[in-house]
Design a protein that fits this description.
Blueprint: H1 2-27, E1 37-43, E2 46-50, E3 65-68, E4 71-78, E5 85-87, E6 94-97, E7 101-105, E8 113-115, E9 121-122, E10 128-129, E11 135-140, E12 155-156, E13 164-165, E14 172-180, E15 184-185, E16 190-192, E17 202-203, E18 208-209, E19 219-222, E20 228-231, E21 240-244, E22 247-250, E23 258-262, E24 266-269, E25 286-291, E26 299-305, E27 308-315, H2 318-326, E28 341-344, E29 351-355, E30 368-372, E31 380-387, E32 392-397, E33 420-423, E34 426-431, H3 459-466, H4 477-488, E35 496-498, H5 501-514, E36 534-538, E37 544-548, E38 553-554, E39 572-573, E40 578-585, H6 596-600, E41 607-609, E42 616-617, E43 621-633, E44 639-651, E45 657-665, E46 681-688, E47 694-698, E48 701-704, E49 714-719, E50 730-732, E51 737-743, E52 749-750, E53 758-760, E54 765-769, E55 775-781, E56 783-785, E57 793-796, E58 799-801, E59 810-812, E60 821-824, E61 826-828, H7 834-867
Parallel strand pairs: 14-49, 14-50, 34-35
Antiparallel strand pairs: 1-4, 2-3, 5-61, 6-60, 7-8, 7-11, 7-56, 9-10, 11-12, 11-55, 13-52, 14-51, 15-22, 16-43, 17-18, 19-20, 21-22, 21-43, 23-34, 23-40, 24-29, 25-31, 26-27, 26-30, 28-29, 30-33, 31-32, 36-37, 37-42, 38-39, 40-41, 43-44, 44-45, 45-46, 46-47, 48-49, 53-54, 54-55, 56-59, 57-58
C-alpha cells in the first residue's frame, strides 16, 4: 500500500518538473535566440515480488512479478531548431541562419560563452558588446595593413570610434566604355573636326614644321577660355560625319569613292580673231574665210567632245552645227553625254563651248576635251567662188589633214598639231585608305625656306630650272612649284587621291591656285591662270573655308640666282573670279558607286566667289568623340580631375578602327614627362579589331605629379581592358557611353558615427563607412560550433557554456564549414511554440491530478485497513 503512495508522490514531483520546464518555455517565448526544452520522463526502480521462471517439464514458465515504484525526470532536452528571423533596422543586430553560435567573453577571451542572441552594439570605447557588456569575439582590422586576418586566434572585437583613414594615392584607373563606330553620332558624342591652316606641313601660328597627318605628332593651341585644344590635325575622311540637325551622319566613304569640285565654268571659244568670216551677202569671190556651209555647200563636222564622237557631213550653217553639237550634251540610254553647251559667236566665226560642271558624275561630263578630227571642214577656212549667173557660191573646202592646225585653234600656238584642246576647271578627288604623300610645295602664305638640287647660277642649272615642267617634279618643293605654276597640274585630269582632311584641303587649295584654266585659253605653260591668293582652311567649327582675296600673285623668277627670288611688283598674276560646283564622282565603268554625302559637305560653296567677296563655308564636319572625367588622388589625398577623350581618327586596313586618346589634368599637375608638348597632356591611341574588340592601346601608364607638395612621379596604370576581349573599351554601332570608371585612390577620411554608417555582411564582416566615401572592414565576427548543441549548459543571460557532453568548440567564419550565414539588422526569435507549450500544460495538469488521486485513494485504503480493528 505504501508503494502506491510513493508512486503517486513521484508522479507529482515529476509533473511538477514538467510544469517548471513548460513554464520556462512560455516565459521565454519572446527571448531572442531562446531554444525551448522538454522533459524526458522515465520509470523508476521496480520491486521484484517474484522472479521469472523458465518452463520445466509439463509446467510452463512464469513471468516475474514486479511492482514499479513511480516515475522520474531523467533529463531535459534543449531543441535547437531555427527560430524565425525578424528585421530590426538596427545595423549592429545579427542573426544566425543555420548552425552555430556567436561568442562573447567578459575576461578578454579566456572564457568564451555562446549565444544565439545577436543584439550587439559598440560601447563608448569601441568594444562590440552584448546587452550584458560582454565583448563579442572575432578578428580585428590590422591598422598597418588594413586587412583582417582570420587565421589568428579570436579576440575581443574593438575599433576606434574616431578612426581616421589615410589618403591612398591612385595607382590604377579602370575605364570601360562603348565607343560609337556606327553610322550616326549624337551631339553629346561628337566633336568638330580639327582646324587646319593654309600651309601643308607647317604651322602658321607657331612657325614650325608640322606634319598634320602624323598621328604621333599632336599640336595644341590655347582657346579663348584659356584651355588647350588640338590644331593642325588631319583625320581619315572615312571616319568623318556630316552634321545634320543635332546629330552627325557618317559619310561612309569607301575606297575609290570621291567627288568633283569645279572652280570655274570651263569655256573655250574657237577662232578668237584674225581670220575673215564668210559673208553670204558679199556677192563676190571670198578666199581663205571661215566657212560653216550654206544652202548649196555642206561642210563636214567631225569632232570628239569629252570622248563623244560628233560627226555630221551635212552641216549648212553655224547654228546648225551648234544645234547638232548640243544634241549630245545630255546622256541617253544608248550613249554618254558631254555636259558641254555650244553657243554660236555673234560674229559668226565660231562656237563658244561652256561646261558649268554642274551635272553628271563621270569624266566625260566635266571640263572640255575637244579634238578637231581629220576631215573636219566645218568652221575651217575655204575659198568661195561667186557665180553671178546662178547667184550662188561654190566652195573649195580645206578639211583638216595630219599636221595642219585647225582654224578653231589657230590663234593659240600652244595647242598641239593633233588639234586637241583641253580646258580643265574641275578636278575629281578620290579616297584611298592608304597614306598619301603629297609633293612639297612652295606656299606664299609661309613655310620653311625652299631649296633644291637645282639651286645655283651655272648655265647648266639655269637650263635645268627652265626645264622643270619636263623633269622630275619631286626634286624639290620649289621645282614642283615652278612646274605647277607653269601648268603641269592645270591640265592633269587624273584623280587627286586623298586620305585625310588635310590631304583634301591641300589638294583643293593647290588646284584653286594652280590647277584651273581660268581664262579658257587651254594654255599649258602660261601663268595667267595662277590665283595664288586663294586659301582653303578648316576653321574651329570643322568647316572648310575658301577665301578669294583681291590680291595679285607675285611669281618667283626662274632665272634668278636664287630660285625662290620674288621681285615685288614684277611678274604678277591678277586674282581670278571663281564659280564653285561640287558633285559626286562615279567612274564610267560603274565599279565605284556614288557617295553624295562627301560632295554635300561643299554645297555651301556652290555659286560665284568673286575676288574680294565674303568667304564661302562648307557644312560642319564632325568626328565620333566621347569623353569622361574622374578623380585621381595624390599622396596628400588631394583630388585632381583627369579628363579622357577618345576621338575616332582612322579606319584600319583590316576593317577595324583607331581612336586618338587624350588624357589631361589641370595645371600645375603634370602627366607628360617626355618634354614634347604640354606637360599636363598625354596623347595616345586605342585600336580596335573589325569585331569591335580592343586590340591595343597606349599609354599603359602615366607618370603623375601633383606639384603641390605631394609625392612626385606617381605611377598610375591605365586599365582599358584585355586585348582581343570585350571586357573594357569596345568600338561598335551603339551610342558612345561609359560602362564603368573607377580608381583605387581616395582622400583621407574619418569613420562616420551611428549604426547607419555600418553594415554587416553574411560572413560577419563589420564594414564601416568613412566621410570620404570609402568603406573598410573594421572587424569580423566569429561563429563557433559544437558537436552536440543540446549538451551546452545554460548559465542565464541568453548564454551557454561548453560542457563535457557538448564537444569541443570550433571557430570560423559564418557561412563556411557548415556554420550558418549571418543576417544583419536582424535577430533570431525564440523557437518556443505557445500552442505546444499550452497543450503540454493540459497534459501535465491531467497527470498531476491523476497522481494526486493515487495518493488520496491509497489513503482511503489505509483508513479502511485501520478501521478493521474497530
Amino acid at each position: 500500500m505504501m508503494r502506491s503512495l510513493w508512486s503517486g508522490v513521484s508522479g507529482l514531483k515529476t509533473h511538477q518538473i514538467g510544469m517548471d520546464v513548460e513554464g520556462n518555455n512560455i516565459a521565454n517565448v519572446n527571448t531572442y535566440g531562446f531554444k525551448y526544452s522538454r522533459v524526458n520522463y522515465g520509470t523508476m526502480f521496480s520491486q521484484v515480488m517474484g522472479v521469472a521462471t523458465s518452463p520445466t517439464g509439463n509446467l510452463g514458465g512464469q513471468n516475474a512479478m514486479q511492482v514499479g515504484l513511480g516515475v522520474g525526470a531523467d533529463a531535459t532536452t534543449r531543441i535547437h531548431s531555427q527560430g524565425s528571423i525578424s528585421k530590426t533596422g538596427w545595423n549592429y543586430d545579427m542573426a544566425l541562419s543555420g548552425n552555430g553560435f556567436f561568442m562573447v567573453s567578459g575576461d578578454g577571451g579566456r572564457n568564451k560563452y555562446l549565444t544565439r542572441d545577436g543584439s550587439f552594439t559598440p560601447d563608448a570605447e569601441g568594444n562590440f558588446v552584448n546587452a550584458n557588456g560582454m565583448i563579442v569575439q572575432g578578428w580585428n582590422r590590422d591598422s598597418e595593413t588594413g586587412q583582417v586576418d582570420t587565421t589568428l586566434p579570436v579576440q575581443n572585437i574593438k575599433w576606434d570610434p574616431k578612426m581616421k583613414l589615410p589618403a591612398n594615392p591612385s595607382s590604377q584607373i579602370l575605364l570601360s566604355a562603348s565607343l560609337n563606330s556606327g553610322a550616326r553620332i549624337t551631339e553629346n558624342t561628337s566633336r568638330r573636326a580639327y582646324g587646319l591652316d593654309s600651309v601643308h606641313g607647317y604651322n602658321v601660328t607657331t612657325t614650325t614644321a608640322n606634319d598634320e597627318n602624323d598621328t604621333g605628332n599632336t599640336q595644341f593651341y590655347t582657346t579663348s577660355k584659356n584651355a588647350l585644344d588640338i590644331t593642325e590635325k588631319g583625320v581619315d575622311m572615312a571616319s568623318v560625319f556630316k552634321k545634320s540637325g543635332t546629330d552627325g551622319i557618317s559619310i561612309n566613304l569607301r575606297e575609290g569613292q570621291g567627288m568633283w569640285i569645279s572652280y570655274a565654268d570651263a569655256t573655250f571659244t574657237t577662232n578668237k580673231g584674225g581670220t575673215a568670216v564668210f559673208n553670204p551677202n558679199n556677192n563676190a569671190n571670198q578666199n581663205n574665210v571661215i566657212f560653216w556651209g550654206d544652202e548649196n555647200n555642206a561642210v563636214n563636222l567631225n569632232i570628239t567632245l569629252n570622248g563623244i564622237s560628233i560627226q555630221n557631213n551635212n552641216i549648212r550653217s553655224l547654228q546648225e552645227a551648234v544645234n547638232f553639237i548640243n544634241t549630245y550634251t545630255q546622256p541617253t540610254d544608248t550613249r554618254d553625254g558631254t555636259g558641254v553647251i555650244a553657243v554660236a559667236k555673234s560674229d559668226g566665226s565660231g562656237i563658244t563651248f561652256t561646261n558649268t560642271n554642274a551635272s553628271g558624275t563621270t569624266d566625260n561630263m566635266k571640263n572640255i576635251n575637244l579634238t578637231i578630227n581629220t576631215g573636219n571642214s566645218a568652221g575651217e577656212t575655204a575659198n568661195l567662188t561667186w557665180n553671178a549667173n546662178t547667184q550662188t557660191y561654190t566652195a573649195t573646202l580645206t578639211p583638216i589633214q595630219g599636221n595642219v592646225t585647225s582654224n578653231w585653234a589657230e590663234t593659240n600656238p600652244n595647242i598641239n598639231l593633233t588639234n586637241n584642246i583641253q580646258v580643265v576647271t574641275a578636278h575629281k578627288y578620290t579616297y584611298t585608305s592608304s597614306a598619301v604623300d603629297l609633293d612639297p610645295m612652295f606656299n606664299p602664305d609661309g613655310g620653311p625656306a625652299y631649296t633644291g638640287p637645282n639651286a645655283g647660277t651655272t648655265a647648266q642649272n639655269i637650263t635645268q630650272r627652265n626645264q622643270w615642267p619636263n623633269t622630275d617634279q619631286g626634286l624639290a618643293s620649289y621645282n614642283y612649284y615652278m612646274a605647277t605654276v607653269q601648268g603641269s597640274i592645270k591640265n592633269d585630269t587624273s584623280a587627286r587621291v586623298f586620305r585625310t582632311t588635310e590631304d583634301l584641303r591641300e589638294l583643293i587649295q593647290r588646284d584653286a591656285r594652280y590647277g584651273v584654266d581660268y581664262d579658257g585659253s587651254a594654255n599649258w605653260n602660261g601663268t595667267n591662270d595662277v590665283n595664288g591668293a586663294v586659301k582653303i582652311t578648316m576653321n574651329t567649327n570643322g568647316q572648310y573655308v575658301v577665301s578669294n582675296a583681291n590680291e595679285p600673285t607675285a611669281l618667283p623668277d626662274p632665272n634668278a640666282a636664287n630660285p625662290g627670288t620674288i621681285n615685288p611688283g614684277a611678274n604678277l598674276s591678277a586674282a581670278k573670279n571663281m564659280n564653285f560646283e561640287a558633285t559626286s564622282y562615279v567612274n564610267r565603268v560603274g565599279l565605284v558607286s556614288a557617295n553624295d554625302a562627301l560632295a554635300s559637305f561643299f554645297q555651301g560653296w556652290d555659286g560665284p566667289l568673286n575676288v574680294g567677296t565674303q568667304n564661302k563655308i562648307a557644312a560642319e564636319m564632325l568626328l565620333s568623340s566621347f569623353g569622361t572625367s574622374l578623380e585621381i588622388f595624390d599622396s596628400l589625398g588631394t583630388s585632381h580631375l583627369i579628363k579622357v577623350q577618345w576621338t575616332k581618327q582612322t579606319t584600319t586596313v583590316d576593317g577595324g578602327n583607331e581612336w586618338q586618346m587624350i588624357l589631361r589634368v589641370d595645371e600645375p599637375a603634370t602627366i607628360n614627362s617626355s618634354g614634347v608638348g604640354p606637360s599636363n597632356i598625354v596623347v595616345g591611341t586605342v585600336r580596335f579589331g573589325n569585331d569591335g574588340s580592343l586590340v591595343s592601346y597606349t599609354p599603359r601608364t602615366i607618370n603623375f605629379s601633383g606639384n603641390n607638395g605631394s609625392s612626385p612621379n606617381q605611377q598610375i596604370t591605365l586599365n582599358l581592358g584585355a586585348s582581343g576581349e570585350f571586357s573594357g573599351l569596345v568600338s561598335n554601332d551603339v551610342t558612345s557611353a561609359m560602362d564603368e570608371q573607377k580608381t583605387d585612390g581616395y582622400k583621407p577620411g574619418t569613420l562616420q558615427k551611428g549604426a547607419e554608417a555600418v553594415r554587416i555582411d553574411q560572413y560577419g564582416n563589420i564594414i564601416g563607412t568613412f566621410d570620404n566615401g570609402q568603406t573598410q572592414v573594421l572587424a569580423t565576427v566569429a561563429v563557433g560550433s559544437v558537436t552536440n548543441d543540446s549538451g551546452l549548459e545554460e548559465i542565464g543571460g541568453n548564454l551557454l557554456r561548453i560542457t563535457g557532453n557538448s564537444g569541443d568548440l570550433t571557430v570560423g567564419l559564418g557561412g563556411t564549414g557548415g556554420r550558418g550565414n549571418i543576417k544583419s539588422a536582424s535577430l533570431e526569435m525564440s523557437n518556443a511554440d505557445l500552442s505546444t507549450s499550452l497543450t503540454n500544460l493540459i497534459i501535465i495538469q491531467r497527470g498531476y491530478q491523476a497522481n494526486s488521486k493515487t495518493i488520496t485513494t491509497s489513503d482511503q485504503l489505509l483508513n479502511t485497513l485501520l478501521q478493521l480493528k474497530q
